[in-house]
Amino acid sequence: MAEVEKVFIGGLHEELIQDKVIDEKDLDPDFAHLIKKYAGKDVMTCLQCGNCTGVCPISLKIDYKTRNIIKCCQFGLKKYTLGTQWVCATCYRCYEHCPADLNPAEIMIALRHIAVREGIIPPFIKTAATNLVKYGQSVKPDPEIDKIRIELGLKPVHSHDPEFKTVIREIQLLVHATKYDKLIGIQEEVKV
Questions:
Q1: Is 172 helix (H, G, I), strand (E, B) or coil?
Q2: Which pTM was predicted?
Q3: Can you say whether residue 27 is alpha, beta or left, with left for phi > 0 and alpha for psi between -120 and 50 degrees?
């Protein structure tokens, strides 16, 4: 049997893209409790009104809509949902429009916490964390930035600058002290 999944496209349009047969072994009855542990809200209170998806600035660009992800959380589809939450912009517009006071953005953040603890880490997270401990920012510095800083009358930021090295050292200590380096697998990048 082919797998079909309904995807909301916009307006009143939906498209069936894959048929997904859900077996009882795919359900985790404790998933809602785990989400509540990290999000502080009970995902079971979701009314499935669709307001979160309707106001989401990226909902038209992604296959997995907020409302659908929350419904999967309610069902206990842990494995299915843990790879879908990284696209949330955490703008909290969904929370502003939620009649159940659920805060879907916090649910997405909770799913991120759970995913990381289960070793489901997208490469861009590892790259950003590695850049943070190496350069003090989530993106690798570009020499063009120093040119712009000089034009603005600012001092260029160099990794050999003693003040900058102190900041990087502090970041490395914090990342190591919180065990974030081990959690996402960048411990070789942290010099403690």
A1: helix
A2: 0.74
A3: beta
Ranges of H-type helices in the chain: 31-39, 51-55, 66-75, 78-81, 93-96, 104-117, 123-135, 143-151, 162-177, 180-184
* Best CA proximity match to 10, nearest among 46, 48, 62: 62
Transcribe 50-67 into DSSP letters: -HHHHH-TTGGG-SS-HH
pLDDT digits (tens, 9 = 90+) for 42-98: 999 999 999 999 999 988 787 778 998 999 999 999 988 887 767 788 999 999 999
CATH class of 2-117: mainly alpha
- Joined together, the tokens standing for residue 154 give 């600012």
- What is the domain partition of the chain in residue ranges? 2-117, 123-184
Burial degree of 73 (CB within 10 A; 0-12, 13-18, 19+): buried
Identity of the residue numbered 90: T
